[in-house]
Structures are given as C-alpha cells and as structure tokens.
Amino acid sequence: MNFKNITVGELPSFIKSEWYQNTPIMPITKERAISQYYNPDADHNDIALIIALDKDNQLLGFIGILPGKINYGKSSKKFFWNSCWWVHPDRGRQVSMPLFYKMLQITDNKLIFFDLTPRTHQIMQKLPYFVTQEKIGISAFLRCNSACILPKKYGKFAKIKPILNTIDSAINILTCPYRKIVQFRLSKKPSFQFLFNDEIDGEIQKFIAPFIQQQAIPRGKRELNRIIRYAWISNSQKAKQESSHYPFSVYAFQFYNHIIKIYSKEQLVGCLFITERDQYFKLPYCFFHPEHTTLIVKVLKKILLQRKAIHFVTWNPYIKERLGKQKTPFLLLRPIKKQMGFPQIQGFEYLQHAFYQDGDGDAVFT
Questions:
Q1: Number of DSSP helices (H) and strands (E) in the chain, helices first
Q2: Tens digit of pLDDT for each residue in 169-178?
C-alpha cells in the first residue's frame, strides 16, 4: 500500500498524467481540479488530495481537502474542509481510516465538516478532539417527484417507476392552477424589484461586506466569483461520460448559479446566490437584514415558481422560520437534518457557535 499527496499546484499536471488518463475510477474530476487550482484561499503547496494505491498502482481510495479561511478576530486564518472520501468497496476497506488520519495530520486537525455522512458521524463522535453538532433546515416541495426520489431511496420502487411517473404527472397537473394563482398574486403590484446578475459586482461587494465580517467563513467577491466561474458540476457530454468514473457529483442535465439583487424603494436590500440543478434549488449564500425577511421570501418564492422548481432546501434561520409560517405555494414542508463536525482546538471554540451559510465548505459547488 502506498499513499501519495497531490498539492494544489500539482493538480493541472496530475489530470494530464498517464496514470490519471487510464485509471478506471478518477480521484478528482478535471472541473474540480481546475477550480481548486484557482482557489484564492489556497497556496500551491497545500495538499488537495491524498490517494492510496496498491502494489500495482491501482487506486484503493482517496480523500480530498479543500483549503479555506475563517474569520479570526480582525484577521483570518487558514482552515480546511473535507471535500470527498472514497474507498474501493472490495479492495480498499483497509485504507479508509489511514486516509482519514492522514488528512487530520496534514491539516493539524484544523478541519470543519459541514455535512457528515452517518458513518463519518460515528467516527467523529469517538474522537476526543472533535465535537459534532446537529443543524435543522427545511425541505420544501413545489412539485411531486416520487419517480426520482423513491427508487433512489428504496430500490424496490424502480420496478414501478412508470406508475410513479403517472402519479407525479397527475398531481402536478392538478396543482398547476394553485401555483399559477400564487405566482399571479406575487406579481400583482410588487413592492420590490429583483435583477439577475452574472457575477458579484461592485454594488453587491459593498452591500455584503458588513455581513461577511460577521460570518465564520469570509467568502466575498473574489471567492464567490471563482465559485461561479469554475463550477464542479457540468452539463457537457464529457461530464456525463465522466460521471460513470467518479463516485461523486460531476454531471447534471441543467446546472446554473443565479446571483439576484433585490431592491425596495430603489435601494439594494438583499442579495441571493441560488444554485439550480435539474429543478432542485439551494440557497448557498444570502445577505439581508432580518427586517427584510418577508420581502426576501417573496422574491425567493417568485423565482422558484418562475423557474418551475421541484424542490428547495435551506438552513437559513430567518427564511426557514418564515417558510414554516407561510407554507404557500409548497405542497410539502418537512424538517431536514445534517451533522457538522468542529475541532476542539484552543482559541477556536467559537467556531461551534458561529454563523454559517448553507454553501460554506464545498456545499456551494454541488
């Protein structure tokens, strides 16, 4: 067994190497490699990927590290996020924990885990130098999509997928007038305007600056524009082919990053960074004052209806609370949970109680 570290600076040459071109399972996609290479929070000698190889140079497993920064008083400090962790189901079981411990060693335990899998959560609970914390968000459905959800969760439903498609179509047709009515009401004499933007511009940068200072992770204009320009998900045929050789997200039929400016009385009062993936919507970043929550939710609902959204999820406390009280136009609202992991390092205890955006870590990319 042999472990190999790939630095951020080595990523472009690594994805051109003969080994990478011939390996059946890729430890990183070209999109992720280029995105990490241009990460403004990374140094070229930061380790981005650890791979485990057998005596024949075949891949046994890999673990990814995404360098970032945290606010620390009036300055910032280097921190890291775990971006992926995979082992070969047959030949790689013995490398799982060695990969994990090597990641902890390389990062000096300066890691935040933003969405622990059940297995990783069990591991973290046994480590004396990490603590886990549950976060509760809200999952909202605007359309029925059981034909997609149930077979993935319960394999037996794959046999009746045509029936589920028929049920979905019938429910969505019957509820269409309801969504149209809600959309009409939201459009009637609106007290707000919103504009779609291609990137974080100077106006947005000035508006979000005070919010960024209060967050644990200071992602501003430079960081967010890099995320927009170097997406991890692609709708290209090449990405579709790669999806069978990579264990994590790489392809979507549709994937968009939406930057929205929200105005009230000609003043900018909010900015939303929304991701759309095959009619599934997330809100990685949002910037607004609590007194504008009602207005922000109105804009959000209007966008979801215009874009024919199936599903929306958020952990933002203000939006979550408002949606819980005003359930229109959603067919179903339910709580959703995730586990986060924080290091117990002297001087960094505040991280457990800091404010995090939904997109922090690598969540914004997927």
A1: 12, 12
A2: 999 999 999 8
Q: Which residues pair with 111 in a beta bridge?
A: 80
Residue carrying the six token digits 């290479």: 37
Contacts 24+ apart (CB under 8 A), 199-202: 199/225, 199/228, 199/229, 199/259, 200/224, 200/225, 200/228, 200/259
Q: What is the pLDDT of residue 190?
A: 77
Asked whether the beta carbons of 70 and 79 are under 8 A apart, the reply is yes
- Which domains can be identified in the chain, with CATH numbers? 2-112 (3.40.630.30), 138-338 (3.40.630)
Residue 302 scores a pLDDT above 90: yes
Question: Which positions ≥6 away from 222 have C-beta within 8 Å?
Answer: 40
* Residue 146 CB partners (closer than 8 Å, separation 6+): 164, 167, 168
- Kindly state the DSSP code that residue 91 receives in the 8-state scheme: T
Beta strands, E only, the chain: 2-7, 47-53, 59-72, 75-87, 111-112, 130-141, 193-197, 255-264, 267-277, 280-288, 311-314, 332-343
Per-position DSSP letters for 286-300, written without gaps between them: EEE-GGGHHHHHHHH
Strand pairing report for 311-314 and 332-343: unpaired
What strand order describes the sheet that includes 332-343?
Answer: 193-197, 255-264, 267-277, 280-288, 311-314, 130-141, 332-343
